[in-house]
Amino acid sequence: MTEPLRAQSFMTRVEHSIFMLRDMESYDSEPPEGVGIAYLPVARGAVYVASTIQDHETEAVVQVWPGVPPMRKEGELLGQVALSSVSGRVSVHALMGGPERKSVELDGAGLYGVRVYRFGGGPAAQARRAAVVERIGDGEDVEMPTDLESYVIEMWR
């Protein structure tokens, strides 16, 4: 069990330092208490992932494993939680954004383990973002670097 069964890459907008992994059919769209404090707060059908950086684009790769994956040696482990999927499909979304057209198939509806790792981020990425804001301003039409941080989200039944 050294390889995931399948994986899907998502580019998503991080808004207010948050994005979410959610079931494609049934989830609470209202973030739970503690978002921005806890790294992985969970609501019905959704896991809210906190970023160290304000508004920007990031890549999140969702991997579906046949069982509990081995712990990674690289990346910052943000935590491990359980997520209930009604549809058997999940997607990565911006907090306020519209529906993502892509999804990844799980092994049917049920309860899944979710482990999230962050790569990059932190003070160095915050400084890069701040330099862009200082140089060209901060707004909806500002192109932020897309490589400030990335995520791997491992899921298993």
Description:
There is one protein chain. The protein is mainly β. The chain is 10% helix and 44% strand. A five-stranded mixed β-sheet has the order 1-5-10-9-6. It has a five-stranded antiparallel β-sheet with strand order 3-4-2-7-8, with no helix packed on it. The mean pLDDT is 83.
Q: Briefly, what is this?
A:
This protein has 157 residues and is mostly beta strands.
Structural class: mainly beta
Number of strands: 10
Tell the overall outline: globular
* Proportion in β-strands: 35-45%
User: Which residues sit in consecutive blocks of at least 5 with pLDDT less than 50?
Assistant: none
Give the SSE string: EEEEEEEEEHE
Q: Strand sequence of the main sheet, in spatial order?
A: 1-5-10-9-6
Quote the average pLDDT: 83
Helix content: under 10%
Q: Which value, in Å, is the CA radius of gyration?
A: 15 Å
Query: For the terminal residues, how far apart are their CA atoms?
Result: 14 Å
- Helical stretch tally: 1
Largest sheet: 5 strands, mixed
